[in-house]
Write a structure and sequence with these properties.
Elements (H helix, E strand, L loop, with lengths): L1 H51 L23 E7 L4 E3 L3 H6 L4 H4 L8 E5 L2 E12 L2 E10 L1 H74 L9 H28 L8 E4 H18 L3 E5 L5 E4 L1 H17 L6 E8 L3 E8 L32 H11 L3 E7 L3 E9 L5
Parallel strand pairs: 7-9
Antiparallel strand pairs: 1-2, 1-5, 3-4, 4-5, 6-8, 9-10, 10-12, 11-12
Length: about 425
């Protein structure tokens, strides 16, 4: 799929580049053509005007076979044509000799407009018009050699064709490279999505399989009492809660990816929120023979989504409780500076291997399960990271095996929407 998309993007990028080069080349060519022939056209038209302003051009007493006049531009030659067959006549000896034998090529085909013609291997531009004389109607043709201009334009076209050829090759190469670079984040997102779907399917399959197996066991003994099957029923309930939590977390992450969840930011006292959460965990900590402390020496006002910050702290405390053994300590603190609010959760638990620290916020990632009996889905810290990012915070993790973990979050005091 990506291969075909890569090729299509390459062709599209190349096509756009080729069209732009073609437009630019056309502009350069027509501009050069206009500038090169501007002097030629002006001198031809000035000769016509100068000729028509001479007295006696249409005088019936004119005795010569053609009109007499002074040419303004020595580079312009004058040819006179007379009769139905348009025979070259007159006293223009040099011009007559120059075009001798080339009358068919040089004879004017259209009147009163600038025309191009090739004769004897040379390029010319001319303008012709009829004049009435005593000898009859005569066609006057002003003509100028434009061989140098034509050669320059031909050379320009050749250079442009060569340049366009090189440009097409460069466009294909650069288009292929740019298309590949453009597809890198798409491939990464696709791979992460595939991995997410695979991991989610695996995590969902496990509790479903347990529930199905225990339900089949219950159906095999329809006469058994609840007390007889209390262990199986307890397992079904436990896995159902786990499945519900997993689905909720998956839905949260899916909505966060599509920006369907908005942060409802408002100002609240974060130190009061921490005290409320601490009350919920004190009984659990006491039951598990662990100690939990709060360090919040002063009131701290924070502008954020109170519900999401509550969820963030619960996730961090839940992880700290889960990976701290009996007799361990957990410390939750909240401090503030002139520009920041610092939240931290420190425990004396089993710690995280150094190589795993960069990955703990990845979805479904769980460090070595053999070191602990705690169960999890690997989604909690991913949700925590999303909440931190939405509040423009930075997170830092320090951990040592067997000594504990410190997770420190720094939020800016001024929150952007």
């Amino acid at each position: 799929m990506f291969r075909r998309t890569h090729i299509r993007l390459t062709l599209l990028n190349s096509l756009v580049f080729i069209v732009l080069i073609s437009i630019l080349g056309s502009i350069i060519y027509f501009y050069t053509d206009n500038r090169l022939y501007q002097d030629v056209n002006r001198s031809l038209m000035e000769s016509v005007n100068h000729f028509q302003q001479q007295p006696g051009v249409d005088n019936d007493d004119h005795d010569s076979p053609g009109p007499r006049f002074m040419k303004r531009d020595p580079r312009i030659m004058t040819l006179l044509w007379q009769g139905e067959g348009k025979q070259l006549i007159g006293e223009q000896g040099r011009e007559t000799e120059l075009f001798s034998g080339k009358e068919e090529q040089i004879r004017p085909k259209k009147l009163n407009s600038l025309q191009d013609v090739v004769a004897g291997g040379f390029s010319y531009r001319y303008i012709a018009f009829d004049v009435n004389t005593t000898a009859g109607k005569v066609t006057v043709q002003f003509i100028r050699n434009v061989n140098s201009e034509k050669e320059l334009l031909d050379r320009l076209i050749l250079i442009m064709f060569i340049g366009c050829g090189i440009g097409v090759v460069c466009a294909l190469v650069s288009g292929y490279f740019l298309a590949g670079r453009a597809l890198v984040p798409i491939k990464k997102a696709w791979d992460k999505q595939q991995e997410f779907v695979s991991d989610a399917s695996h995590e969902l399959r496990t509790p479903l399989a347990v529930i199905q197996a225990k339900t089949d066991v219950l159906f095999r003994n329809p006469k058994a009492t609840i007390q007889d099957k209390i262990h199986d029923i307890s397992t079904i309930s436990k896995e159902s809660r786990r499945l519900s939590k997993l689905v909720t977390n998956l839905l949260t992450l899916a909505r966060s990816d599509s920006n369907q969840l908005e942060m409802k930011k408002q100002e609240f006292q974060i130190d009061e929120l921490l005290k409320e959460i601490l009350l919920q965990f004190e009984d659990i900590a006491l039951y598990q023979e662990k100690t939990i402390h709060l360090q919040a020496p002063e009131p701290v006002a924070f502008c954020g989504d109170k519900e999401r910050i509550h969820q963030l702290i619960v996730i961090l405390l839940d992880n700290a409780m889960k990976y701290t053994n009996e007799g361990g300590e957990i410390q939750l603190s909240c401090l503030q500076s002139h520009s920041s609010i610092i939240l931290s959760v420190k425990d004396t638990g089993i710690g995280i291997p150094e190589q795993d620290i960069p990955r703990i916020f990845d979805r479904f990632f769980q460090s070595n399960k053999a070191r602990t009996s705690a169960e999890g889905t690997g989604l909690g810290l991913s949700i925590a990271k999303w909440i931190i990012d939405k509040h423009h915070g930075k997170v830092k993790v320090n951990s040592s095996l067997g000594k504990g973990t410190l997770i420190e979050i720094v939020f800016p005091r001024t929150q952007k929407n």
